[in-house]
Amino acid sequence: MSATQTSGLTAAARARLLAIARRAIASRLRGEAPPAEPAEPELSRPSGAFVTLRRREDGDLRGCIGYVEALYPLVEAVQRAATSAATQDHRFDPVGTDELDGLVIDISVLEPPSPIRPEQVRIGTHGLIVERGRRRGLLLPQVPVEQGWDVTTFLDHTCLKAGLAPGAWRDPETRLLGFAATVFGEEEG
């Protein structure tokens, strides 16, 4: 599955999820609970999801948080990830109400992760999770495409995200998981 593939969700469902994410962020910034969002079956299935926020003017990352595991129905996972990306990504100050209109939202709906060998990793197809002990790092499948990385660089950067040294993925005590994702956003052509 391609990182930019949108199979599995209809165009209407993708548009609805993007609108739900934007409403959830707006509500949180106003100090309100996210609105109740009745979900059709397509959006009710449990799924992992990440929400990425970027500034429209320059494409710079403004927040990215999500759930690898299918802990919530998709609609709820998107709401939770959206509000967390806007207010709880510790790499950034919380999004201000004056910033919301200048943000672009992308959503990644994750397939369940499974063990993967380094030689099986495909750029643009797999997201990666590196785990060793209590350390864990995750990079979505679109990251190496956006950065122009090869597989080794992708593996090394996922290790860095976990707080491990580059090349730690070669250690037999390091666990490597791969996952596919359906990725879509507000600025799809």
Can you walk through the features of this model?
With 189 residues, this protein is an alpha+beta fold. The chain has helices spanning 11-29, 41-44, 74-87, 142-147, 151-161, and strands spanning 48-55, 61-67, 103-110, 114-115, 127-132, 135-139, 175-179, 181-185. The strands form two sheets. The protein has a four-stranded antiparallel β-sheet with strand order 2-1-3-8, with helices on one face. The protein is globular. The two termini are 19 Å apart. Mean pLDDT is 92; it is low at 1-6.
Catalogue the unreliable spans.
1-6
**Rg:** 16 Å
CATH top level of the largest domain is: Alpha Beta
CATH-derived topology of the largest domain: Glycoprotein, Type 4 Pilin
Helix content: 25-40%
Q: CA-to-CA gap between the ends?
A: 19 Å
Spatial ordering of strands, largest sheet? 2-1-3-8
Brief synopsis:
This protein is an alpha+beta fold and 189 residues long.
